[in-house]
Design a protein that fits this description.
four-stranded mixed beta sheet; Rossmann fold; 25 helices; alpha/beta; about 55% helix; 3 domains
Length: about 450
């Protein structure tokens, strides 16, 4: 068993038995479920909208090289600069080089799971650069020295009382502040950071190839401030975020809003297509877009798992997953948790080290049912399991156990041997790995085959 798998089992075991954690998560997800149902009413045919979005992403991914080159051509024409980064290390190196050129001491960040993926904050801190998360949820997590818990709502596992206590410890505020007062405290602190920062860093929800722009959706306006106030704006975006045309946003923005937060449309939707142009009064004087691979072409090269690149990071599959709702986001120890994280992480990293995530699923199919772009997530989890076995990433005892089970299943006489109690004993004593983290199997006294013969001769 890999170190990552051992850590996952240990953390998930603790969280699954934490009833207070479960209460908070189910409360927040319950509120999400109620508003999503309302948000869906804006679509006359929600299934058709999802199908069209899937086809749109299919076209974009199948022509990814052409789309990215088209994006670069349009973006650079307006004075922007594009940097291609194959790995996390390359992306960090390029960002640090820009920071050195600008004598940067402070960075404001917003809307970027990719920066969490490459552990940018750690790299900046080691180089003496202050990096401040400006989205409220991310800011709360940064104060608590925790990574985001959820890809849309980073502090979902914290109650208002938890946040008030954290602010009191870290910022010296009154521990009885209301949610509105806590928001005002964060706003006052962050406004100073915007003004003083030399560089602003954001992610992007979409790369729009036909105009060479990035599209950002948010509810707080912090991404706009992070992009517009500092003289330099860096957007770090995974290459899979590409869509062919600006007209596609008419479909993708409402879908992302509805499945992400239950809104008809997100509060702020912005398209940025380069630095400040002659005659414009605001915006950065320089803008960079870093196009990050970091394992995404591993998925692209795999015809069966390529579909995972359609993901628009709405987080709906996390909220629907019974496993996620019991063990929480931090148990996964990855940037992308839940079903989509379990699908893509073994390909973005190392299959043998992270294969356990693809087994952390009930295969109920609820993730596929709620996916905004109809990714067959539960089938991709099975595909990951298959590829792991084919690659030889299984222990000798596991292979032996499944061979025995296969033979018993193929030969009815073997299946009928012994009583139910004897079979229970064999599974519990001989194949301990099965029941170590599962409920005990309970075989009936007689098999269906035996009962059929008794009743029908």
């Amino acid at each position: 068993m890999s170190d990552s798998a051992s850590s996952f089992i240990a953390k998930s075991t603790v969280k699954a038995n934490d009833l207070e954690h479960r209460r908070k998560i189910n409360f927040n997800i319950g509120k999400y479920n109620s508003v999503v149902a309302v948000g869906k009413q804006q679509f006359s045919d929600i299934h058709l909208a999802r199908e069209r979005a899937k086809n749109l992403k299919w076209r974009a991914i199948e022509t990814l090289d052409q789309r990215l080159e088209e994006f670069e051509s349009h973006f650079t024409r307006r004075g922007g600069k594009v940097i291609w980064a194959e790995t996390a290390e390359e992306a960090i190196r390029e960002i640090l080089e820009i920071c050195r050129e600008k004598n940067c001491r402070t960075i404001v960040k917003s809307k970027s799971m990719v920066t969490e993926e490459i552990h940018l904050n750690d790299a900046l801190e080691k180089n003496g650069i202050e990096s401040v998360e400006t989205d409220l949820g991310e800011y709360i997590q940064q104060l608590d020295n925790e990574p985001p818990y959820h890809i849309v709502t980073p502090a979902m596992h914290k109650s208002k009382e938890d946040v008030a206590k954290l602010f009191a410890e870290k910022l010296g505020t009154d521990p009885k502040l209301s949610a509105e007062e806590l928001t005002q405290v964060a706003r006052r602190i962050l406004r100073e950071k915007y003004v003083n920062a030399e560089i602003g860093i954001t992610g992007a929800n979409f790369l729009v190839s036909d105009i060479g722009g990035i599209a950002v959706s948010e509810n707080e306006g912090n991404a706009r401030l992070s992009a517009a106030w500092p003289p330099t704006h860096i957007a770090i975006v995974g290459i899979e975020k590409i869509i062919p045309s600006i007209t596609d946003l008419g479909l993708m923005w409402p879908l992302l809003a509805t499945y992400g937060t239950g809104q008809r449309i997100t509060s702020y939707n912005t398209i940025m297509s380069g630095p400040r142009q002659p005659g414009e009064t605001d915006g950065p004087t320089e803008m960079y877009v870093i196009l990050l691979d970091n394992g995404r072409t591993n998925l692209l090269a795999n015809a069966k798992t390529r579909e995972a690149l359609y993901c628009i990071r709405c987080g709906a599959c996390l909220n629907a997953c019974p496993v996620y709702k019991n063990i929480g986001g931090h148990s996964y120890a990855t940037t992308y948790s839940g079903p989509i994280g379990s699908v893509i992480t073994p390909h973005l990293k190392d299959l043998n080290e992270w294969k356990h995530l693809s087994y952390a699923s009930s295969l109920c199919g609820n993730c596929t049912e709620v996916c905004a772009v109809k990714i067959n997530l539960h089938e991709l989890l099975l595909e990951n399991r298959y590829e792991s076995v084919e690659a030889g990433n299984s222990s000798f005892s596991e292979k032996t156990a499944w061979k025995v089970w296969k033979q018993a299943s193929l030969h009815r006489n073997f299946m009928n041997l012994g009583t139910g109690k004897m079979k229970n004993w064999m599974i519990s004593k001989m194949f301990k790995g099965w029941s170590k983290h599962r409920s005990q199997l309970n075989f009936p006294a007689k098999t269906f085959n035996e009962l059929w013969k008794e009743r029908n001769g």
